[in-house]
Amino acid sequence: MKRILKYAALGFIGLAWMGASVALASEKSKSQIAFEQLTSLVGEWKGEKDGVAIRLVYSLTANGSALMEEFRPEKGPVMITMFTTDGARLIATHYCSAGNQPQMTTEAITDSQAKRLEFRLLRVTGLKTSKDWHNSGLIVLIEDKNHLTQEWTYQFNGETGKTVFHFAREA
Fold first, then answer.
1. How do residues 60-99 score in pLDDT, each as one tens digit?
2. Residues 6+ positions from 109 with CB-CB distance below 8 Å
3. Which pTM does this prediction carry?
4. What own/partner pairs with CB < 8 Å and gap ≥ 24 does 107-115 have?
5. Any residues with CB less than 8 A from the CB of 135 and at least 6 apart, and which?
6. Residue 16 has pLDDT above 80, yes or no
7. Which has more pLDDT, 57 or 112?
8. Is pLDDT at 19 greater than 50 in this prediction?
9. What are the tens digits of pLDDT across the range 26-43?
10. In 3D, which of 74, 79, 70 has the Cα closest to residue 52?
11. Spatial separation of the C-alpha atoms in residues 24 and 22, rounded to whole Å
């Protein structure tokens, strides 16, 4: 009888440990939750800058692990920005019409419900010289489900600048 109770107790402890492991494995990280919030942008957005109409198109790709933003100005080339998670951070890789690809990252996500995500330059590929025009940062502000602001910082010839875009979700 003692042997049966001993094995039953060990079995119960084993099941409890396995249950706790499954529960921990199914919990999402703060960066995954922040990425899911970013995916709420999926769809089409419209804005205008200096009299030029701009459309943003967001779509999920790579089995939901990447969010693709297509920046489509009425006049000018299309650019792509890909958003993904990387451990505790989010990464934005911008495929620029200038022919370079700045990769920007957030700090470790501490507030998964934050409406503002700030990406800072990690590295740039495709630059011919360090003075070439390239983006150096991005702030994404999800104001509400129908309004979005982007603040892009850039560097050119040793100078830093900023461009702000406001978008509204298309109905």
1. 999 999 999 999 999 999 999 999 999 999 999 999 999 9
2. 29, 30, 31, 33, 34, 88, 89, 90
3. 0.84
4. 108/31, 109/29, 109/30, 109/31, 109/33, 109/34, 110/30, 111/30, 112/30, 112/31, 112/33, 112/34, 112/37, 113/33, 113/34, 113/37, 114/34, 115/141, 115/142, 115/143
5. 94, 96, 102, 104, 121, 152, 153, 154
6. no
7. 57
8. no
9. 699 999 999 999 999 999
10. 74
11. 5
Domains detected in the chain: 30-169 (2.40.128.20)
Dihedral, CA of residue 36, residue 37, residue 38 and residue 41, to nearest 10? 110
Q: Rounded to the nearest 5°, which phi and psi values hold at 62?
A: 55, 50
DSSP-assigned letter for residue 28? P
Burial class (CB in 10 A: 0-12, 13-18, 19+), 35: buried
- How would residue 22 be classed by pLDDT, with cut points 50, 70 and 90? very low
State in Å, rounded, how far the first CA of the chain is from the last one.
Answer: 70
